[in-house]
Amino acid sequence: MNQWLIGVAVAFVVLAATTAVLTRDPTRQAVVLSVLGLGLAVLFAVLQAPDVALSQLAVGTALTPLLILLTVRKVTRRPTHPDDHPATGDDGQEQK
Fold this sequence. Notes:
With about 100 residues, the chain is mainly alpha-helical. It is built from 3 helices and no strands.
């Protein structure tokens, strides 16, 4: 029974890691990375390493994807006001 659980957990981790590599959208990558972290936490728990499983659960499932999502949000932000556009001057005309 234990070998079967290890095999299923390893297969899930391999599938999640492959999906994370093949995903192009950074937001979806963060979600898949969170699922991968959960799979790794389960694998570590099945392998009787509860301390590593808890660390993976905290860092790999929650903290790292959250930081990635916040970074993607910050990088993809666009100006909301026409005055904030860096290519225009004070009068709204495009600078050359």
